[in-house]
Amino acid sequence: MKVVDSAALLVRSVPYGESDLVATFFTETEGRVGAVLRGARRSTKRFGGTLEPIHELVVRLEDRGRELCVLKEARIARPRQGIVSSLAAMEGAGRALRWVRHLCPNRTPEPRVWHGLRDLLDALDASREGAGVGVLLVTFGLRLLAETGYALDFERCARCGKLCPPGRPAFVDAASGGLVCMNCGGARRTMGGELRAIAARLSNPRSTGTDASELAAVTDAHASELLLIIEEAMAAHTDFAG
Ligand SMILES: [Zn+2]
């Protein structure tokens, strides 16, 4: 039997049997892990407030080599009251946690996704009235796709590799991995040159996506259009359904 102590985020919990819960955690050391919480519905004393998403937890899991671990202990290590008090931030955080649940495979450590998710939640926690939620989500979503092997290319045709000149509009097909040039059949959706440049910049892990000049350049309309493309890619590759 292995004992896992890790920082973790709750990404889902569902009732199980008479009195238990089955929770899905995204952990720092093991990636996504499912765990049984024995008696969690009979008594709220044992795990209490730790079973809310958003706050960063420290969990102890018992791994007996079965599909599900058993949660032995959980406590809140970093509360994020700022998210809880803003509907927009709350919805943004919930969306990011859902993405992670669908894109990250079981029991596979994803340290860069873990740190990206933690940074996103901290930024949402600090945002006033959920300002800038769209661009924060887009940045995380693009990098999550890249980290899990589904990077979107906004500069070259995803089929033949031909460079699309900067500033020009292009066809984009999220399921194919980004731009699709005319010779390769094009796509139903197009995106303008400005939006392509924004998407390419936010996809770059060296840009933080949160500095003031970048935030200011991304309008809500840009963010909504990119979120649509991101979630189309997720739906094409996983059981994510939006
Ligand atoms: Zn092509």
From TrEMBL:
GO biological process: DNA recombination; double-strand break repair
UniProt similarity note: Belongs to the RecO family.
Entry keywords, A to Z: DNA damage, DNA recombination, DNA repair
Gene: recO
Entry GO CC: bacterial nucleoid
Domain (DNA replication/recombination mediator RecO N-terminal): residue spans on this chain: 1-79
Matching InterPro entries: ARFGAP/RecO, DNA_rep/recomb_RecO_N, NA-bd_OB-fold, RecO, RecO_C
Role noted for this protein: Involved in DNA repair and RecF pathway recombination.
Superkingdom assignment: Bacteria
Naturally occurring in which organism (per UniProt): Labilithrix luteola
The keyword DNA damage is annotated on this UniProt entry: yes
A Pfam family that the UniProt record links to this protein: RecO_C
Protein name stated in the entry: DNA repair protein RecO
Entry-linked SUPFAM superfamilies: ArfGap/RecO-like zinc finger, Nucleic acid-binding proteins
